[in-house]
Amino acid sequence: MKRNLIMGAASAGRGLRVLVTSAMLFAALAVTGAGIAPSAASTANSAGQDGAASVFYTTSGAGNGLKNGAEIFAITVRGATFTTRDVGPTKGGDCGSLALSPHGTLYSMCGHLFGVQRLAVIDQQTGYADQFGVKVPGLAVMAMGFSPNGTLYAVGDCNPDPVTFECIADKDFNALYTVNMHTGAFTRIGPTGAPQFFMDLTFDSHDTMLGVTTTVNPSTTPAILYRINPAKGTATKLRTLTGSNAVMGLAFGRDGKLYGTDFTPASHLYRIGTTTGMETTIAALPFGSSSGLELMNPAE
Fold it and tell me: Collapsing DSSP states into helix, strand and coil, what is residue 223?
């Protein structure tokens, strides 16, 4: 499996059709490279501004071969009002995941998505990814999340097709791991059993691990919300999501509602109904290719 992944990485280095078609890639680069700061174009105002604001971070452009790596953006949501801010480039390659520890440290897996990755700490002021620890080859980690007790989980093992980059299911595919925050080492728990790859993880108010799957390339296959058993790794389907099929960011807000972003040339922010699977569009975001989504101010 690892040999196949390295071959996939070589192919990705030539064309880097990772997660997007070539036409979508051009559009995503054009949007992401603009370095958009808060403005009238990135702000929506309407009624319903009561309640505490939720500040989310998302990683934009992972897999697109951006010169300075994926970009970190902040999204602030208060009711129906939202603003965005360009935090800065990771300068760490394909940093497609985000996970905030209970102590307030922001982590990602960075490097080459279909090659070697390393755990990284993200500077919350600049977006810079400080990579450390052991090198982790062949897992293509997109989904990470901290449990309330401080355990860092991740899903990995995507053996990519050398042409389409869709994950090829094998005995190691789509497995749940724990991650050592000090060494960056991965310990395998077990396979999730889901047919598509997990793109993000989050925990609800009952400490239940949830995850979302999609296909690597845009398709008609819907995004699906799962509950994951942290002891065994097995995933149980909860809802088929209705709306965007490319949801790759997943996080609960301070209002207790589930939010998502999608990996498209012009990404959107959604509120996701946990009982219905319906995605309600909150805003069109002024950047593209959003993957990981993380609530940065769970409490004040």
Answer: coil
